[in-house]
Amino acid sequence: MGSFGSAEADRLERLGADSFRQGRLVRPGTWAVAFLAEWCPFCRDFAPRFASLAGDVRIAVGDLTDEENPLWEEFGIEVIPTVILFRDGAPVLRRDGTLGEGLGPRDLAAVRAALAGA
Q1: Model's pTM, two decimal places?
Q2: SS (H, E, C) the chain
Q3: Closest CA relative to residue 81, chosen from 89, 68, 92, 71
Q4: Predicted pLDDT at 2
Q5: What are phi and psi of 58, to 5 degrees?
Q6: Whether the bond into 105 is cis, omega within 30 of 0
Q7: The sheet that has 58-63: what strands, in order across it?
Q8: Which neighbouring-strand residues pair with 33?
Q9: 68 phi and psi, to 5 degrees?
Q10: Which terminus of the chain has a lower count of CB atoms within 10 Å, N or C?
Q11: Any idea what the Cα angle at residue 62 is, between residues 2 and 57, rounded to 5°?
């Protein structure tokens, strides 16, 4: 596999379409999933910051490097990176990247705030 910008980000669990279909996120608890692609410069910039959430919640990467991955359509992802916070398998917060900008510190702060209120 390629790189998402840092050793910490590269160690994150990568979830593909099969992981979602097998109910990987349906277990009780909270997961933050960043939908990223290795070819996306905004994703490579965001991934190390996203990895900093590891102490607060179970985090993973929805790997969208393959542009044919059905997760694009299943989650209606149009811009990456996108972060979705799942609680007991249901999406409870979503932050979509902005074209030409990606996700910034405010987006990460919103995810942290949602986690603090969990």
Answers
A1: 0.88
A2: CCCCCCHHHHCCEEECHHHHHCCCCCCCCEEEEEEECCCCHHHHHHHHHHHHHHHCCEEEEEECCCCCCCHHHHCCCCCCCEEEEEECCEEEEEEECECCCECCHHHHHHHHHHHHCC
A3: 71
A4: 62
A5: -75, 125
A6: no
A7: 13-15, 58-63, 30-36, 82-87, 90-96
A8: 60, 84
A9: -95, 0
A10: N
A11: 110
Q: What mean pLDDT, rounded, does the chain reach?
A: 85
Instruction: Quote the CA–CA distance of 59 and 14 in Å, as a whole number.
Output: 9
- pLDDT for res 78: 93
Per-residue exposure over 91-100, b if at least 16 CB sit within 10 Å of its own CB, e if not: eebebbbeee
Q: Does 32 or 4 have the greater pLDDT score?
A: 32
Single-letter code of the amino acid located at 75: F
Right CATH for 7-116 from 3.40.50.720, 2.70.40.10, 2.40.30.90, 3.40.30.10: 3.40.30.10
List the chain domain ranges.
Answer: 7-116
Both tokens of 96, joined, read 């979509």
Count of all residues that appear for the chain in the document: 118
